[in-house]
Amino acid sequence: MKIISVVGARPNFMKIAPFIKAIEAHNQINSPKIEHILVHTGQHYDDRMSQAFFEELSIPEADINLGVGSGTHAEQVGLTMISFEKILQIKKPDWVVVVGDVNATLACSVTAKKELCKVCHIEAGLRSGDMTMPEEINRLVTDRLADLLLTPDRLSNKNLKKEGVTDERMKFVGNIMIDTLEANRSKAEKLSVSQIITDNLIEIGSNTSVPQKDFAILTLHRPSNVDNEVVLSNLVDLFCDEISKELPLIWTIHPRTVKQLKNFGLWSKLLNTNNITLLQPLGYHEMLKLNIEARIMLTDSGGLQEECTVLGTPCLTLRWNTERPITLRENGGASILVGNNIERIRNEFFDTLKQNRKPERPELWDGKTAERCLKAILENS
Ligand code: UD1
Hints:
Layout: E1 2-7, H1 10-29, E2 35-40, H2 51-56, E3 64-65, H3 73-91, E4 95-99, H4 103-114, E5 118-122, H5 134-145, E6 148-151, H6 154-162, E7 170-172, H7 176-189, H8 193-200, E8 216-219, H9 223-226, H10 229-246, E9 249-252, H11 255-263, H12 267-271, E10 276-279, H13 284-293, E11 296-299, H14 302-311, E12 315-317, E13 335-337, H15 342-352, H16 369-379
Parallel strand pairs: 1-2, 1-4, 2-3, 4-5, 5-6, 6-7, 8-9, 8-11, 9-10, 11-12, 12-13
The structure holds uridine-diphosphate-N-acetylglucosamine.
């Protein structure tokens, strides 16, 4: 059997790493072996957004890199489809495996179906209901087309059922990202917070004095938070004038956000605020260590919401909706939706500081999801 699996952007790498390990483990004891080809679309190309994760998570170098790079959604999706079609015609895989909800997920699932390849979607069935999110469109199209839908939780199966997906096409396998978290937790624990800060300062001049514990971490990259000048500038005021006065704030900044902060003239205020530390995008282990030690996380990332749930880090999710309701406090998780309403963020921030860590492990978030994914593919071949 021949499988092509696809990655494109940072949140894909921690999902594909355990799947590749599961194939390697299978091939050690079974014959005939599975032939595996890893395709990187090249959407994320900076070392810190891509190569660093391959090294840290021991992902073998991609067999093929499509080099699509930055661009509009149509450019990224279009260029990926044009190149991926050629790969499929030459390699003729039995299965194309896509993960998550980025542009690569959509582009490669559509192309694969048109080339009559079977498609498996890992992390199927998540729905935010928000059609202004590019990721929601990517999820909907991919799940409509995929032959095998592997879901991280039972709520996702319910979503798929509502859309008319039959039981034979879907399987609840658990959250594959947690395989990576569990495999890397002890390595992350050994790192030092001060070393992480020294190694990743974004610019000389940014604050370096952060305690080992008792700090807040912030990540922000969604267009709804960073592409609008008023929204971003109100958030920056809140971080500089209030949040960082209460707790040292470490902000690991996505390239899209750096660009916008500079465009909107907000950069120097941040650099000159004493209790804020600005860091480059971190490696996997470094981010995990900060998450383990932080008093509170503020983020608009879906993956971090999930990691906070398992680690118990209280999390303010700077979005109005989530495709991952299992991570919300009302469902046993660690996160609460605060959107980008300043008063709401402020109130929930001070409220949340009174809470303790409460690690929670949703069903089948047990570190063994990748094995179940591969088993499901083999059973459906
Ligand atoms: C993408 C994903 C999003 C995911 C996020 C995590 C889609 C639709 N979105 O959004 O789901 O949560 O990745 O990071 O696929 N850039 C660099 N270096 C890089 C990559 C990007 O400088 O290595 C810059 C680009 O110039 C671009 C901006 O960052 O302007 C945004 O990158 P892009 O790939 O368009 O989307 P993300 O916002 O990263």
